Amino acid sequence: MSIEPPEKALILIVDDSAANLGILSEFLANDGYRVRLEKDGKSAIEAIEVQKPDLILLDAIMPGMDGFETCKWLQASADFKDIPILFMTALSDPADKVKAFDLGAVDYLTKPFQQEEVLARIRLHLRLRSLTQTLKEQNQQLQKEVEDRIEAEAALQELARTLEQRVRDRTLELSNSFEELQNAQTQLIQTEKMASIGEIVAGVAHEINNPIGFIAGNLKHLEEAIGEILDHLQLYQNHCPPSNAEIKEHEEQIDLNYLIEDIPHMLHAMKLGVDRIGNISISLRNFSRADTSSKVLGDLLEGIESTLLILQHRLKGNSNRPSIKIIKEYNELPPIPCYPAQLNQVFMNLLANAIDALEEKYQTEDKQLKLKRDKTLEPPTIWIGTESIDDRGVIIRIADNGAGIEPEICDRLFDPMFTTKPRGKGTGLGLSISRQIVEERHGGSLTCHSIPGEGSEFAIAIPIEDLE
Ligand SMILES: Nc1ncnc2c1ncn2[C@@H]1O[C@H](COP(=O)(O)OP(=O)(O)O)[C@@H](O)[C@H]1O
Ligand SMILES: [Mg+2]
Question: How confident is the prediction for the chain on average, in pLDDT?
Fold first, then answer.
């Protein structure tokens, strides 16, 4: 801590009495101080403005601007208020002393002066001033340090925030890429699976075709041949009625008349069966048609019909529920540039989900309403509607009056692996793959609308785009 040496301190003495000025300046100078003298307040202020003193000895009573006014002016000035002011006066009225201290004086000297006392007080106040200044400087230094630290802390916090944000962004990026990867993988597995199933199915369908062909061809000949044999038998019966007991017995044993009547029915049923196998084979081939690498013009109604035929066995009634009614509200659709086998997969997923939802509804309602079931429950139904919107696109709706979907899971239906079905039954991939096929491969949309307990509707919208 540096204290200004008293010898160098500049002291301004303001007094209208020349005698006082003389005495004071002399012993102060002798003590090593630099001294300036002024006779009144006004000239004192002018002198202070030129050179700032370290301490002021100020006479209280002076003509013109007196000590009190001078003190007031100095205290009001930001530049000079820190100069210690010692009042000097012969007055000993305590009110004056109080007034001086109120105005900002630091001490009071009463005339006549005791030389030693004046010097001691001056030294004390100079020292105090020097200490105050050092303190002030240290304070400023400290304050600056505090400010610097606050600034550094704010910068650190900002850095931490930026870092956190970067970590968050990166995590989001990572989880997005992970999700994309998962989707791509799901899609890949599914595409691979469908491709190999498709190949097998197409192969099987093709292989069945030949045998069906010759069964159908031979059935026709068989029908004719049996017709002729029956006519021939009839001739026998007319012209040579059996007298032989063995023949008669055999005729009764095999119930010949019934056989003659039934054989055409059997043949008819066989023909129907063969027709159906033929249709199924065509549907299988349609359904699994190996997809081209670019879009082809596809008949979506044919795709829906093939899918329905493949799902036929699941529509039939069972011990839990009556058979499922299919209501077709078809409007004609133009041929659509698309990947037909992939869209068939979408129809398959949506129809299978609708059947599951109908089954679930019957199972839960069945427990509560076992007896009233047939009366209270409307028959399980699936509606399939198609419409085309000018030449801009087509919409296919698949609706059911099944269990419906709770609003809180509506947003998650399309997430990969989301399923409400028991392990082994649901994979949770159907809707996610369907959405990928409709939205990413065909630029369309797949949306769901459902009322819990009443049913659900899924709408596929596909824009008509030019073939690439
Ligand atoms: N038609 C529907 N009615 C009611 N819920 C449905 C329907 N379609 C889909 N869901 C719900 O969406 C979930 C996900 O379907 P999906 O992705 O096909 O997977 P999964 O059928 O293997 O469960 C189903 O578990 C079911 O909860
Ligand atoms: Mg499903």
Answer: 87
